[in-house]
Design goal:
globular; binds adenosine-5'-triphosphate; binds magnesium ion; single chain; Rossmann fold; 7 strands; about 190 residues; 5-stranded parallel beta sheet
Length: about 190
């Protein structure tokens, strides 16, 4: 069992980990493996947000939905309560929007990173338009998810998901078993560039 962290402890009994990052960086891959390894419940937060009608429109230019970010903590609270009632010892929230949680809800935020060449390859393989690929690469270069997660006050670690999933999962579990205060990214080390 992974111990609850001393600092930034959420007010729930179960451990809550959110996994964020630019599309294609490997969130789902790592989230499922981690959930399996830790015996936590994997939650596809994107699906829940879609089902909850948090879409406030569609951005056709970007070929994506616009989500009301302010409503995300409420959905996460419901999810945590439900998991707690079912006796889960932990949950993994998988979404590029999961870092819009409230800081009290989250024990650890994992930001997936991917080398640009590999990310470009993955996104092109999905058939994304050139514009969409470029936008996502830009988001990765400017570390948008990490910056937003730190602004949200979450405890953040970055994981390179360019290759070797097994090694990454091991690395995360090692983080979780230690006091992470030495390892998390300090908010002051990142400036907003958007
Ligand atoms: N560590 C890794 N090493 C090699 N390939 C990986 C790794 N992680 C993910 N991949 C591959 O990259 C692709 C994208 O991975 P994945 O679907 O997990 O990304 P994602 O961040 O969940 O994307 P989305 O934001 O669209 O949900 C998949 O084909 C997956 O097999
Ligand atoms: Mg995914």
């Amino acid at each position: 069992m992974v111990p609850k962290q001393k600092k930034g402890k959420n007010k729930h009994k179960l451990t809550v980990i959110c996994v964020t990052g630019t599309p294609g960086t490997g969130k789902t891959t790592i989230s499922k493996r981690l959930a399996n390894e830790l015996g936590y419940k994997y939650i596809n937060l994107n699906e829940l947000l879609k089902e909850s009608n948090l879409n406030i429109g569609r951005d056709d230019k970007r070929d994506s939905y616009i989500i009301n970010e302010g409503k995300i903590p409420e959905k996460i609270r419901e999810t945590i309560n439900k998991a707690e009632k079912s006796g889960e010892k932990g949950i993994i929230l998988d979404s590029h929007l999961s870092h819009f949680a409230n800081k009290e809800q989250i024990d650890l935020c994992i930001v997936c990173k991917c080398e640009l060449k590999e990310l470009k390859r993955r996104l092109e393989k999905r058939g994304y338009s050139r514009k969409k690929v470029e936008e996502n690469l830009e988001a990765e270069i400017f570390e948008v998810c990490k910056t937003e997660a730190l602004e949200q006050g979450l405890k953040v670690i970055e994981i390179n998901c360019s290759s070797n999933v097994k090694k990454e999962v091991k690395e995360i579990i090692k983080f979780l078993k230690k006091d992470m205060s030495q390892m998390v990214i300090q908010p002051s080390s990142v400036s907003r560039r958007r």
